[in-house]
Predict the 3D structure of the following.
Amino acid sequence: MRHAVVLRVHASFALALAVGPVAARAQGTLVVQNSTEPPGLDLTATPASATAGVVLYNVQECLVKVDRHGRLVPWLAERWHTTDDRNYTFFLKRGVRFHNGRELRAADVKYVFDRAMNPETKHPYPGYYAAIGDIIVKDDYTITFALKSLNANFLLNLARQGSVIYPREAVDTLKSEPIGTGPFRLAEWVRGDRIVLVRNPEYHAKSIPRLDKIVFRFIPDPNAALAALKAGDVDASLFGLGPEHVQELQKDPRFQVIVGDTTNDVILAMNNSRKPYADVRVRRAITHAINKADVLKGAMFGMGRILGSNVDPLNPYFVDLAGAMPYDQARAKKLLAEAGYPNGFEAVLKVSPQYYYAVRSGEIIADQLQKVGIRLKIEQIEWGQWISRVWREADYDLTIIGHAEAWDIANYANPKYYFRYDSPKFQELFQKSEVTLEDKARRDLYVQMQRMLVEDAPAVWLFMHPRLLVAKKGLQGLWKDLPIPSADLSEVAWTK
Amino acid sequence: MRRYVLRRVATLVATLVCVSILVFVVIRVLPGDPALIIMGTEGSPEAVARLREALGLNRPLAVQYADWLRRALTGDLGVSIQYDVPVGRLILSRLPLTLPLMLMAAALMVLTALPLGLYAATRHRRMGDYAAMVLSQLGIAVPSFWAGLLLILLFSVRLGWVQSGGFEGWSGGVWPGVRSLLLPAVALGLFQAAVLVRATRSSVLDVLREDYVRTARAKGVSEATVLGKHTLRNALIPIVTVAGIQLGQLMAGSIVLESVFALPGLGRLALGAITARDLPVVQGVALFVASCIVLINFAVDLLYGVLDPRIRYE
């Protein structure tokens, strides 16, 4: 009897599975897979790229915008002018409304930047605004920023995630209900599951957005994300898949695969303050001992670009130095012997398994360094530990990590940064580049800095992590490259 | 019985206090500063320091714990650092998923394990027994996350019968909710059943060798009555013990499966909170889960008395 009951139960499950087709999706809806849920939606409180990936340019916007080609374009400010590179006057676009219906005025802009510069507000990037001396509201649509010193990245900084414009009255709810002027407004955040954005009917730019609704679904497991794509439950994965999945999907006629450039430089960082890495010969030896082509092949299935210095290929001042310090084992051994390590040494490589490429690259590099006598022990540590021990305390020999921030060469000019690279000459070059606005002169300085990094080898620049985007065929308007960590979906649409 | 219950309640409270202290200390001893993790590698040291202060992490550990305990006693578990939502509300919001998932998985586990174990015992050392044992061995060997992925591949990718993940909620009716929990419940319940099958089989086998079973059979009692009334009832104590432990295992297993099926349940809340060092949430969830497990054990203990009238707690 009991057997019969069980059989009936199982039969009813089988029946249940056989019915109930997966609901068809409306044409104006896009379901996107994200691996990481944002730790709050307030871009003025968190530097998390997961937050920028949802909010930046979709929900909240800046005076200036970085477009899909990496160019700075006027946005909430329809134009600006400066006569002395110290006083920038911005003319706001008229008729721009926040999602709460109120019109954007110059006083809002002043409030936003005054708040960002106030040490009490915990803004993650106070340095972006350090050069600002005074902000003067001329009228409702005109505002002037008076700088204390020249700042070559001033306009770029106004386009970054910390510089989004929001209404003063919504400041207390930015973390859970961000209000902005973007093409989409937040409709729902089901913690742990999804964020839903809906079209802003009063958007200030013509003909966009082209979607009615975007659902960001948080699927942390890449295999589950792949299955969701294949089952048709999600339409696109913007960041969540690894190269092995992308390779598989390239063969699937239902999907389009975009492999683009990013600002994410994956590096083997060395603790320049610790022996033996304090010796430039050892750092150069390590660089020569690594076959980056094999690392890229093994860790990334060949997707991405080999790097030779810190500036990423999307930067206008990028110089391709991939061949400047070539793979040369004999040279590496010779340099090690000169530095007093003819038999190599032992070292610990700390990596966080949160980033698959770090662990994979580490295993290949351990094998390569072994050949010149450097015996590497790989220690996998959880992200929270990595950030405390490696990044903050510089308690490490070697580590592998991707640096995704654009224009991050500044890190090498900071001797307290976890590389502990302290070169007064480099610092001087960098300071000069910060106050040099003439393009050619600034480019020269950037070229010099990149070459100097190659010579000093404070780190090994392995490869640029590519953008690996998979979407159903028929979805158009997606950004190919990622000049800024944003998932701007304003121009995305389904082909009819 | 009353004294017994009171004693158990006191143990329950003591366990919870120990759990809360343990979690509080462990999560803070772990390297990884919540303020640093929130700010990430791009945040300035000043911003991190200000955030630490705002989160109250600068205060001595004992002060932080006392403060937390005082609030917890009034039902205030604090506010999530990550979500900016009261922890109690966050936990409650996950229960409409986690509880039905647990119930479905537990039902599947019991409904599969009991008949299969009973069947294996009655076919001792025959084909049916071997088949059941191979099946249960397979269930023990296959990790539930992998089983989950295989189920997704078959039922979502190949056949397209159910969604590959996500939870549709209960607002659209019972069926959409149940449908989104079916695969994870199967992955969780069926594979946890494997251990229970073995426990049922061996316990039933023991009882089948008892004199009273032989007597019942000699009296001509039908086999169904022998199994249902004389055997199973007497074999239930060890089965209930294992099932109680398995229920705790279900909770642990759900952490992984909720990630595979992208379900916003309690398990994923805990996992995300640990990664983000969202201390109030870790603390709250640990306390909640510990309470549940202690309550399950409590219920199991009470059930002993019901199942076997000889067990008296006086």
Observations:
- Residues 1-24 of chain A have pLDDT under 50 and may be disordered.
- Residues 439-456 of chain A form the longest helix (18 residues).
- Chain A touches chain B through 59 residues (CB under 8 Å).
